[in-house]
Structure prediction request, 439 residues.
Amino acid sequence: MGHDYRRIADRIAADIAAGRLRPGERLPPQRAFARRHGVAASTAERAYGELVRRGLVVGEVGRGTFVRAAPPRPGGRALTEPATTALVNMELNYPSAPGQSELLAPALAPLTRPDVLTDALRPAPADGTARAREAASALLGLPGQVLFTGNARQAIAAALASLVRPGGRVGVEALTYPLVKEIAARIGVTLVPLATDGDGLLPDAVAAAHRSTPLSALYVQPTLHNPTSVTMSGARRRQVASVAVDLDIPVVEDRIWSFLADGEEPLAVHAPGLTHVVDGLSKRVAPGLTVGFLVVPPHRAEQVADVVRSGGWSAGRFALEAAVRWIEDGTVAGLVAAKREDARQRQRLVERWLGGFRVRCDPRAYYAWWDLPAPWRADTFTAAAAGHGIAVTPGPAFAVDPGRTPDAVRLGLASAALPDLERALATLAAVARGGPSGR
Prediction:
């Protein structure tokens, strides 16, 4: 029997209008909704899409769909700002330096010559080329064998898939990069949340979890942890590495944002035989044409390369050739310098507008972790922000333990233009001070 998705959307809209679905309330996942109401998953998807089109709900795959905290304002008007139809997306977090495209273009021009393009369009092996390995080693300065993937996310997936069998356990910080949760679900491994403090992952938490049921690996972000921006001290890195070595636990070290923090020693230096380092160019350069780096202990290079190939995660040869040229001609170094200064500017805006709140951030980072004032909850604040044309990421998206979700949001500072970012921060501060009843 066919179902009109518009009629389903009308019924949900009526529940919202009558108050049976309250602002900030999370709708069931689309597949669960479809099963409960006996409709096709595609019908549920279209109904949810219709509700988004009407401005009644807001959400994305990976964090849920929420009833908007307020009816859409004409032109998306924020609390304190003139009307605007632009969404300030503080979920996406891709930095861009002024004149970036002009800086990147010269290295691409030689690749379009027919004789060069022929080679650039061939598949790239997992270990790239000798020139690519040399360029990547110079950029990263890490011990080990360099392998290449399409992006850093694929490097994470390849590292974990090579280390952990389905059903295995991976220790992670209690708040972690949401994509890691998605990767773990896809490859059939369990994430074990580990306690942290103001200096990062607690070594005793690693040991205790391993004694309970052995861990197959650790996934950690020692430098500018996403979302909290905590950076481990040198002493803490040595302690975590010592525990990993003593217990023989392989480590996946995520250094995707580490380019913003010059001089922070990698964890891999202290446990080179166990550590698999993930990095990439999407944040340093741009997400559209990028390469992921996976630096592994030499004795594991062939095994990890097999996983990269079988997963279809190899880097494109064209992107790899472009990356080599950007590294060699200094373009990457120039972009890194510009983005470090840009991040500092954006953090000054956070201090200006959110200085009176409990915000955890590092002046070098492109994100901030905001512990919301009571009685705000993460879901209601996220929905309230969306009602003012601002997308933020709710804290539960980062929580590994679904029973311990923080009333916090992560603010991605990189993607919005500076004037838009400042207006968004001012609006969010006003929303927070007004409280849920002031929506």
In short: The CA atoms of residues 203 and 239 lie 6 Å apart.
